[in-house]
Design goal:
This protein is an alpha/beta fold. The protein contains 13 helices and 13 strands. A 7-stranded parallel β-sheet has the order 3-2-1-4-5-6-7, sandwiched between helices. Helix 4 runs antiparallel to helix 5, helix 7 crosses helix 9 and helix 10 crosses helix 12. The protein is globular. It starts with 8 loop residues before the first strand and ends in a 6-residue tail after the last helix.
Length: about 400
């Protein structure tokens, strides 16, 4: 049978947040996956209003249906609520009954319990996409609350990994950790790195100049930016590093330099406000890209957690030089010193990388251009969808075995 006559696969996609529009890295990954996967599969997407920015559904084709979990008091627990929210489970169950999906895919750990129930009830393969090793993420955050949450999450994560037929992880590091922690066979896990759509990284003509004009910045003024969900612990820590370590050392040498922090949740970070350190709050997509275009250097001072690292891919796709910690760029193929500047932590090497880029316009342009080339070659969704299809083919062969 030719590819054009092949029956379209039906996928029930479970995600714990809103993706219209994407408000953080995880939602951006799900949004792009849905956009590209629905070009060759039929999707039924189950999402919630968590992180909602009130946008319209912007994936326009006949192969995708969207169902929102109805709001309830469970939403106060944020992503944790999806683990046991009966309204989410009922929404997913009804969709599965109507849609009759060929397989179930859970994005991030939180909807995995719903996925496990649906697998058992409908005898369909289950794919778990792990954006992090969630137990280790909470363990790294420290504190008594995170300790107890981490123990619960470890049990759920183990159960999800045990019941899933295939697990997709974002890096070889995460694959090795999951295999070691939960004694999983290596062939059960496949590494598919997160991506961006380079063709989507476009900025209106003159938008970068308008951003600089808005903040009163001359063309030669160094502008350093950080972006991320500022309700997320590792990003909050990144802002602290910028305000307490990077900002004073950079301004001591370059008093005219300015910093911009982009992302929702900035109202919680007033203690880090400084003259010349600007918080924008949540930005629409076009405004975020304009701010990136106006920047000189993108900072990734992340020392805990993991995640999808969309901030690096988007900056690279914009052709911007990046200074990152080793943790921030963990598992990526960007070459230190050529396509990105990587230091062990937020240390003297991190600061020196910033100084080198501020002082050398040619280095900034060369590193940004090479980062863009690397993104196009290794991290575009058009290239990665074939890897998802290979996982689905494996699941199709397993389908008859699920009832055993």
């Amino acid at each position: 049978m030719s590819a054009s006559m092949k029956k379209m696969r039906k996928i029930l996609l479970l995600a714990p947040f809103d993706i219209f529009p994407p408000a953080h890295g995880g939602s951006a990954v799900v949004h792009n996956y849905a956009k590209y996967s629905s070009r060759q599969n039929k999707l039924r997407l189950i999402i919630t209003h968590l992180h909602s920015q009130g946008g319209d559904v912007d994936i326009k084709n006949g192969n995708i249906e969207i169902s929102y979990c109805p709001p309830s008091f469970f939403d106060r627990l944020r992503v944790f609520s999806v683990l046991f929210n009966p309204f989410y489970l009922w929404t997913a169950y009804r969709a599965m009954r109507e849609f009759k999906a060929d397989l179930i895919q859970c994005e991030i750990l939180w909807p995995a319990i719903a996925g496990i129930f649906l697998k058992a009830g409908f005898k369909r393969p289950l794919v778990l996409v792990e954006h992090n090793v969630e137990y280790l993420k909470f363990k790294d955050m420290g504190g008594l609350i995170h300790f107890f949450l981490g123990r619960i999450i470890k049990i759920v994560e183990y159960l999800a990994c045990l019941k899933a037929d295939r697990i997709i992880v974002l890096s070889q590091v995460d694959k090795d950790l999951l295999c070691q922690m939960y004694h999983l066979p290596e062939d059960k896990l496949k590494v598919i790195s997160p991506c961006v759509d380079p063709d989507d990284i476009k900025c209106r003509e003159g938008a970068a100049e308008k951003v600089r004009e808005k903040y009163g910045l001359a063309a030669h003024t160094p502008l350093l930016v950080f972006m991320g969900n500022l309700k997320y612990g590792p990003n909050i820590e990144g802002v602290k590093y910028i305000a307490d370590i990077i900002y004073p050392r950079v301004l001591k040498k370059y008093p005219e330099a300015r910093f911009i922090i982009m992302g929702q949740g900035d109202d919680r970070l007033r203690e880090y406000q400084r003259p010349g350190l600007i918080f924008t709050g949540y930005l629409e997509r076009s405004d975020l890209l304009a701010h990136l275009a106006a920047s000189d250097i993108v900072l990734v001072p992340i020392t805990t957690g993991s995640g999808v690292r969309i901030k690096i891919f988007e900056a690279a796709a914009c052709g911007k030089p990046i200074v990152s910690t080793q943790k921030g760029a963990e598992g990526l193929s960007f070459i230190h010193g050529e396509e990105i500047y990587i230091s062990q932590g937020v240390d003297s090497d991190f600061i020196q990388g910033i100084f080198d880029l501020i002082e050398n316009d040619g280095l900034r342009k060369t590193m940004g251009r090479k980062a863009r080339i690397r993104t196009e070659s290794d991290y575009s969704w058009a290239r990665k969808m074939q890897e998802f299809e290979e996982v689905y083919e494996e699941c199709s062969r397993l389908r008859l075995e699920i009832g055993n």
